[in-house]
Amino acid sequence: xxxxxxxxxxxxxIRPKVFGDPRGFFFESWEERKFAAAGLDVKFVQDNQSxxxxxxxxxxxxxxxxxxGKLVRVVTGTVFDVAVDIRRSSPTFGRWVGVTLSEENHxxxxxxxxxxxxxxxxxxxxxxxxxxTDFYAPSHERTIQWNDPDLxxxxxxxxxxxxxxxxxxxxxxxxxDAEYFP
Length: 182
Hints:
There is one protein chain. By secondary structure, this protein is mainly beta. The chain has one domain: Jelly Rolls, CATH 2.60.120. The chain has two helices and 13 strands. The protein has a six-stranded antiparallel sheet with strand order 1-2-10-7-12-5, with no helix packed on it. It has a five-stranded antiparallel sheet with strand order 9-8-11-6-13, with no helix packed on it. The model has no long low-confidence stretch (mean pLDDT 97).
């Protein structure tokens, strides 16, 4: 596995070694010793999977308590995945990083605690896996507007196309009004 810091060093792109032949492919998506050797000594407690259609945008989500780190990847389809640093004490506070995750590239993204997270489906549909470091706690979940002008995330939407949002994402708060981490 290759572990590559992104433009925000705490967010890490993981490129697994994929072994393929005419039968298909195989790769390790999690190996505790390799992650620990790369400085990602984490314990996961919950796995989640979602399926979404083209132009579905989920996010930008985080939990203000029971903070979750997330190892995310795509099983089928393609998404644009985004992590926003909401740690007030961080030199990258308010900055975002985005990567394409797909069934073809097999890449994974480590989104540590202290970040808001979201993704946009670019393919007809996508199955998205989240491996989380803490349990889902709906009472602590918060959402920042996907199109907040202070963040200016460059979502790869076709001209004139609006993303499809959930009810909670449609009423998300502005970044300047969000609860942050210290």
